Each structure stands twice: as C-alpha cells, then as structure tokens.
Input
Amino acid sequence: MKKIFWRVLIYFGVVLIVFTVFIGLIFTKFNRSNIVGAYKDQLGDLAASVAQRTSEAVKDKEIDTYQNYLGAIEDFCDMQDVDVWVVSNPSGKPAMNEDYTNVDIGSVTVPEETNRILRSAYNGKKKNYSNFDNIYQRTMLHLAVPIRDSQGDVIGAVLVTGPMEMQENTIVQYEKYMLICIVVGLLMATILALYFSRQMVSPIIKIKESALILAAGKYEHKTGIKRKDELGSLAESMDILSDKLVAAEKFREGQEQNRRDFFSNISHELRTPIAVMKGYADTLADGYVSEREKQSEYIERIRSECTGMERLVSDLLILSRMQNPEYKMDMEVLNLIAVAQDAMRGIRILMSEKNLTGDVIYEDACSLIEGDYDRIRQLFTILLQNAVKYSDEGTKITVHVVRSGGKIIASVTDFGSVIPSEEWDDIFEKFYRASNHGEKDGSGLGLVVAKNIVERHGGTIFVTSSKEDGTCFTVEFPETSENIA
Output
C-alpha cells in the first residue's frame, strides 16, 4: 500500500507542480509583454506626435517655430533619457529640408538593425526592436515611424530610442515575486498532495486490513469507513460481506450441530434394535432356546426390529432427498381432494385393525394446487398413519379440505392422545418423540419428512391438540387456477 501512496503522491504532486510552473510562466510572459508593450506604446505615441508636428511644419513652412518645438522636445527627452531623431528620407521626392531635421543620418554610424527599421519607416511602416546597444551600453528600445507630406508621400522618419532599464528592472522584480509565488505554490502543492494522497490511500489500507482480518476468520470485523464515494461503496460492500460471512458461519455451525445431533440420534436409534437383534440371535445361536414356539417368537422379534430399521433408513433417504436443493420434483396440477382420498384408501386396512372410520370432507370439488403427486400422497400417508397410531379405538379420522384466501387448506384430525401445547413446534424436529408416544413404534422422522414436503411446495404445516377437538394437523398450500390437463 505504501507503493500506491507514493505513486498517488507523485502523480498528484507532478500535476500540481506542472500546473503551478505553467501558470507562473504564462503570467511572467504576459506581464513582460504588458510592460514592454506599454513602453512601446509610450514611445510610439511620442514618435507619432513628433512626426505629425513635423509634417504640419513642413506643409506650413514654419521653420523657426518648428525649431523651437524641436528644442522643447529635446529638453523633454533629455529629462526622460530618451533620444528623438528627425531624419530626412534620402530617396524622398521631394526630400525633406534639413531645417526640419536634427540629425544628419548620413554622417552618423548606426547599427544595421536601426537602418532596417528606418528603411521600413521610409516605406511607410512603423517598426521597432530592442537589444543591448553598444553605443549606450545598455538595453535600448528603438522605434521608427514615417513622416508624410500633405500628399501622403514619406519625406522622412522619426527615430525614438529609449532605455529598457526600468522595464527590465520591473520585469526582474516581477519574476522574483513570481518565483516566490511558484516556490510557495510548490510547497502548498506538496502539502496538498500529501494530504489528499493520504486521504485516498488510507481507506484502501483499511479495506486491505479488513480483508486480511476476514480471511483470518474474524467475520464480525467492520471497516469503519463512512464515505459517499467509490471507496465508501467498496467499504460498504466489505461490511455487507462481513455480515453475510457471519450469517454463513452461524448457518454452518448450525448445520454442523445438526449433523452431530443427527449422527448422535441415528446412532441411538440404531443401537437399541441392533442390541435386541444381537441378543436374540446370540440366544438362538448358543442353543439356549430349544422350544419351537420360543424360537419362532425370537425370529419374529428379530424380523420386527429389521422392519423398524428398514423404515428408519427409508425415512432418512427420503429426508435426505427432500433437503437437497437440487432434488427435482415432478410438478403438475393436482386436485388435493383426490390425493387425500387415495391416501385414505391406502390405510383402510390399518384403520380396520383398530375399528376406526375415516372420511374426506370438502367444500369445493376443484381444490387445485401445483405439486408432486407421489410426495403429496406420501404427506397424507404420514399424517394418516400417525392418526391411526395415536387414535383411540372406535374413533373417527377426518380429512377436511377447504379453499380460503388463495390457499388450499387441508386438516387431518384424530381423537386419542393429546400433544401438549409446548411440544407443538418440537414434534417437527428430527427424532423428536412427543411425551404421548408411549411404547409405540416409530423413527421420529415421519413429521420431519412431512414438513419438508410441505415446504418444498411453498406451504406451511402446524398442529393443534386438545381433548375436546382432537389432534389436528393443518397444511396450507398456494392455490393454482390452472385446470387439470
């Protein structure tokens, strides 16, 4: 993460530094142009004024008055440390009279660059240049403008030469201040780069640390970052992951506990019949029982225990399939009444052994749901077998099917053993035996299988029990409006 910090710091700092230097250079260039430009305009106005006055004097032939004007101009220029030359155009036709000039350009040695701007002035153009002048031994600005007669012909030129020392000093001072500003700006840019880089990288470091803590198994850890940006969204996602991992861990622990309980319970359930069968088998094998009838009784007892274990294993296999999310059921539109009647017919023989009567009562002959026929029939079979097991002799078992509020509700009612209200939820747990179970056979898995079947069909199951109203298992399924194909 330190690499990211320094990388962000460098990138951010370089951008700020380049921007600061660029702005400084732009403003320095702009200020230099303004200072030099203002001085050029000042000398240009002076040159234009002298050219205009010279042109008027030539036209009006005011020699004496003009000479006084030139004297005043020279005095003014001496105070301003500026030279003003009025020269005649040697190729002008007619040439300007020397009485209107103050310098004989032919008798003076001037730099080639000065001759160039004078020639431009003779051609009617205003030109200027600045450089270090060997004559003045300092940087000078030279500017030449044409002098025209009344017909517009160029008869001469005004050459103004002024020192750039003050302007150069001003520019140097400005550049010093600008340099100070750039240095201060760079310092501030560095501080800001450090601050914003830390602000940007700090959440990333916290998220990385949180990820390592989560990887270590401490799923309850939170990033503690509250930001309204992409990093905040990432931190929020990490916190959501933490919550989900906590929930998954609790679920895993619950599943692990269920697994341990399951193996513990099934070991307990199998231990008793195996011990019984082993005892009877050892007795028969050792020859302690010689009577034919007693031997048959022992063999029958062993067969009964095998049947119980076979039922237990069968229930476990069914329960395992039902709890597998990938288990696919053969879904179709069913009439719940027909399925209940089919299951009722299947247990008539068991009912007759206890002199029980049974009936399926319904209010609407078309009570349709979407489900797996075999599984729904198995559900009713489990509930009816329990009803037969715990009913008093000579009583009635009733299956009642009604439609209500978009649901198909089926209830199986018997009269016999009463389930205490505090056990109504527990009886749907694996291997749970109600206190009214007594010595009756059973694996303790039937109602668990029934509950799983109901839940796989999107329904609910619950029980109520009392001496007056009997024990009633109620199942609710979502209703479907489709017709039977």
